[in-house]
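Collaborator request, handled under Task 6.
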Amino acid sequence: MDSIDAAPPAAGSPVGLGQGIGPDSAVVCREAACQALVGLAPGDPPAWAVAFSGGRHDGPRAFAAMRDVLGDIPLVGGAAVGTITRHAVGYSGFECAVAVFPASLGAPAILAEAGLDDGEAAAGERLGRRIREAARPGAAVILFYDSVRSGPPPVLHAGSRLVEGIYAGLDGMAIHLVGGGTIADVQLTASYVFDGQGSTRHAAVAVILPPALTADTVILHGCVPASSFMEITRAEGAVVYELDGRPAIEALETMLGMPIDDKRARDLSLRVTLGEKHGDPFAPYDESAYVNRLIVAADAKSGALTLFEADFRTGARVQFMARDNDMMLASVKRGTKALMERLAGKSCVLGLYFDCAGRSGLVSGSSSEEAQDMVRLCRSDMPVLGFFSGVEIAPLMGRSRPLDWTGVLTVVHWTQG
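Structure tokens returned to the collaborator:
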């Protein structure tokens, strides 16, 4: 029933969740879909599903296996470094996790837009116009897109350009936009996205939740300023050449107190980001006010730093941001608890976690998985589904933005309580 007059369940969540792990895409994905289907209330048929399959699974084969079980319903999501649920966090690449929404929650509008490889901004603007036509103001919209344009070496679809295009197409209409970019592995060699009707490449898909459902979101990262504000005085795309009129790499070496050799250059993304603070620059530190960009390369010859995204432009005021695992874990605990407190008394349907693959224990070297801490702090009556992503998207200072080194936790709940 696609109406805000729908009555929320008396207790618990009506969403079914399933998961599996193993090398055979058809077997594992069918098993996960079966578990999710069994979790639905009797007599409440499946309406649509969100699914993430590890990057070692074949996308079309995984999609077909889940459809064999769930029937001809829209299925969105895509490739993942790994998956996150209440019962397991894994990133072997052989995982599959599925959440199935029943018909009683209403039908979403699912809009797929191809052509990211012909221009992310243009594809985003087309998608934004379609969202404006199909959604009500303030609607919760979940976005998935294929992060990898080509490779190796990896060339990425720019999430910043995609989101800017969406806002151009929205033409001032406000929505609650969250989501993530799909990747198959941490080397960024491949990806695919489930667009509702199949597994595809170079596409973005927007899920407009039905009026009965809304969402609340929290941004988790834990990076703190490690420098004063600097102005980007020369940049081209994702490459920052100068900060305050001197080579960007010199500014970073000054902050670190050491030269950046080849080994340190490879480890930069684990230690330092470049952050842009939004809102009042003199306001007290608030991690939710920062957009952070991973530093993926440092070139001593040109003095340049290459960022994960291409949205930091000449004239922007930025800071080097330090990160470590203790700050990351503290941010997860603080932010998850705060969100659960805000949701007290709400009928929660599903927690969705878009988690940067760099935050996994595999990459960060953390002694504990921050995703597991997040799940433990979530309400026990709420299923949780997440994936390790390339880019995370969440509302920040008035509009949604692509983020790096971030966990974005969004909880879908009934509009009326």
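The cover message to the collaborator said: "Residues 1-12 have pLDDT under 50 and may be disordered. The longest strand covers residues 290-299. Please let us know whether this matches your experimental observations."
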